[in-house]
Predict the structure of DUF4168 domain-containing protein.
Amino acid sequence: MRLQLIAAVSALSLAAGLAGATAAFAQEAPVAAAPAGDVTDAQLTAFNTAMQKVKTVTAAVQGGTPTAEQQAEMAAAVEASGLGVEQFNAISGKVSSDAVLRARLAVLDAPASSGVAAAVTDEEVSQFASAMVKLRELAPAGGATPTPEQQTAMAAAVEESGLSRERFNEVATAVSADARLRARVQLADARRG
């Protein structure tokens, strides 16, 4: 069972670009199947809590085999979160393969927003994300200054999103300064597919 935990940590670490100590264990035990239905925010929060501790333990392994004590510490962290090891592994498998779930996890993991960012509604986040997709398509290559025609098309794309240009600029400024708001925009992008 502990090797399954390590396999899940390995899969998540690889998906998150944190390949390291437990990669060799990914083939030793299959990750449990994902739970039926969606992962709730409460389950994702518990998973995130456990994962923070598990990552700390796996960082100490440094490419070697985890000791029995380290494996027990990882299992205890998972169980202390309120999840069983099998449920943790199932959620880990889903997080590894589901962009929306990874984005939800990033939102939970980001510090709380404050100021302007805290006042941005979910609808505005969706509108902003939609406008950004269009703006990326219209933007000149290599960071060149947009032509007057491109500027007009970009302004129209913002307004078509439902945001005023002024509100779009406020949200854009807040996104650049606020990790949680950036994560919320990434979640809106992931949900759009």
User: Anything to note?
Assistant: Residues 112 and 189 are 20 Å apart (CA to CA). The radius of gyration is 20 Å. The first helix runs from residue 2 to 15. Residues 115-192 form one domain.
